[in-house]
Amino acid sequence: MLKTNRRHFLLSSAASATALASPVLMRPAYAADAIRVGALYSQTGGLSIVEKMLANGVRMAVAEINAAGGVMGRKVEVVLEDGASDPKTFNEKASKLITRDRIETVFGCHTSASRKAVLPVFERRNAMLFYQTHYEGFECSKNVVYSGAVANQQLANYIPWIVEKLGKKKFFIVGSNYVYPREMSKVSKKLIEQAGAKWVADEYLELGHSEWASVVRKIKESGADVVLSHVVGDSLVAFYREYKNQGMSQAAVPICATVISEIEIAAMGGEYAAGSYTSVPYFMSIDTPANKSFIERYRKFVNDPKAVTYHSLEAAYFQVFLWKQAVEAGKATTADAIRANIGGQSYDAPGGKVRIDPESLHAWVTPRIGQWQADGQSKVVDASPQPVRPLPYFAYGETDANLICKRTGAAPVKA
Asked: Which range is least confidently modeled, 80-84, 205-209, 321-325?
């Protein structure tokens, strides 16, 4: 996503405790034979609370890999750099990791703004970035492995489900005013029409907007029977609270979102989101031994028995294992070797099997829909029977039979 203050508000006690568990940046002495990887996440600034969690996910995966014997018999060591919630700083730190530290793989960035800022560095220097956040697509780089979901993996199942299972036919679309919500809305409108429903209005408010009274009134007066939300950041707290304060019922006119997670729910209070829905590949409530073990290990790693996990954290964790497999398959840590071997790699992640698409280097993940409960956790009410292929140019007509993002690059499209 393209704004640096995305999720700026995440000041929930659970997230704060997890963030405080991160170590102060230090410069340890690295073993001569260790494989060094970068972790480029904000440790300071408005995004640091969430990005410290992502750094912890990477560090936890590396610790587990080392405990199991490392990569090709070598220990892995993490060089952690602070992007300081600023795209310019991200660019500078990426250059430092790649040119001065001679690191060939970096796990990092959380917003599209930071990813876009570092991308020229990775492409010019031929290094690899592993990026875990779900995003708007419309990108196809041979130097990035995209571990988060793209639009088709959040919406292609979601819109038909809302129409068919919830019986909703009139959508009010609301989002923050920048590229991610607008791209998601573009896809949403097509899918709404294909499902035999209609959208009655769409509204976009600036990031950080906290006055939602007039928009909620518009929703009430519009005749909409469902709200499709692509709102991000601290606006979410004000939106959901105002929705409840004006007497809007999630049972009658539910908010169906694409962004909100366990962290945002904890920040606003579970009672404000109870009955609403979200579509993401991973929920903390997934009831499997693998996920329960992941939560337990993560809480132990950050020394916080109440720490929450969420979709980007899970992706930050599992992408390290996919990197390990690619390195061992190619018997080398170079970008060329990783690129040649990462496609097709699969891993049994906490949320289920994931696989990197050989063409686009995006992840096959399992779409899920969760309904939020008053305790701040979700109940998974729908899940794809298997992982779904990522289509980063879905908004521009990309299909399984007509791929736009390929190994050779992206075919021309009209923006």
From this structure: 205-209
